[in-house]
Amino acid sequence: MNLLKEIKTRIRFDRNEFSGAFGDIGTDLPLIIGMIVASGLNASNVLIVYGLMQLLSAIIYGIPMPVQPLKAVAMIVITQKIAPGVIYGGGFAIGIIMLLFSITGIINLIAKYIPKVVVRGIQFGLGIQLAMIALKEYVASDSISGYFLAGGAFIFTLILLGNRKYPPAIFIILAGIVYAIIFHFNEFNLSEAISINLPTLYSPTFNDIITGFLILALPQIPLSIGNSIIATHQISNDYFPEKKISIKKISFTYSIINLINPFLGGIPTCHGSGGMAGHYIFGARTGGSVVIYGMLYLILGIFFSGSFGQVVKIFPLPILGVILLFEGLTLMIFIKDIIDSKKSFFIALLVALIACGLPYGYLIGMIVGSVMFYISDEKIKNYFKIK
After folding, report:
1. Domain positions in the chain
2. 307 or 122: whose pLDDT is higher?
């Protein structure tokens, strides 16, 4: 009985977990599609492995700790059309680096000297980026009808947000499916879309690992330390303080999934504060939402990967944009617990602006914000004239 009770507290399936399962899809799905198309990745491998990593994370943590595509890696792959072998090599290099950081305790040392105010700045900056992408690229993607769909979904979500009886994501996802069928019916041909596909094994070469390290790992690691590990640790403590999830555990599982992904043809992945915020704000409280989310990708990968680009149109971009917008706003709201301090609020905003606006912004923001935090108030007043 105790074991059954423990399982139910860690993995639960109900309307709220189902709603929360879609809380991160607005971030993930477009990046996954973009990487598959840009680099000619095997869609079946990518989707199935991505689904499996969700299940692994759900079992290990028992909270809404999803797995996400590495954002810096994804943007480089999409814009530069990086070869699949280099993607696998880069993912493996990232896994090795983070494993070393975990077992040597380097990640704990870094986290020790990154103050909470800087973490809030990183979250605020990421929230701004997600909200801007949602508004500029997703909501505006489907002409006037898309604006009406997004506006209705936004109002509906605002009304039901936090409602445990009627969680909003279920209704807006269904509205999106109906919209897709009405306005894009001619684009669907499910009879030809269904086929059974299984993943194949890969082995990154030494050259792939070195090239991937230089092209993909170096730009990604600072963002990963700031958002995927330190900020995720903070938000897990905000939402689930009783779990006492450590920095080392998050860093270790981050490394393990990236040591597995390359050999199964999967994309580099991470944990992320935005992903957890998305699942949580739409109702999830256990790993059940992540299991449901993972099963979605497994089904797509096994049965629909042959026509993946066609099938995913059932999730219209304006709806994904609304989900992404609320994920971004949720991250930004966390700044409220430092807003009473002028110094802390100023540092957090500065970190956020640097993270959003500069190349390697998350690394530069962490350094600048941490230095300013440890400088005395008098020196900051003299430099920036804060009164």
Report:
1. 7-188+198-335
2. 122
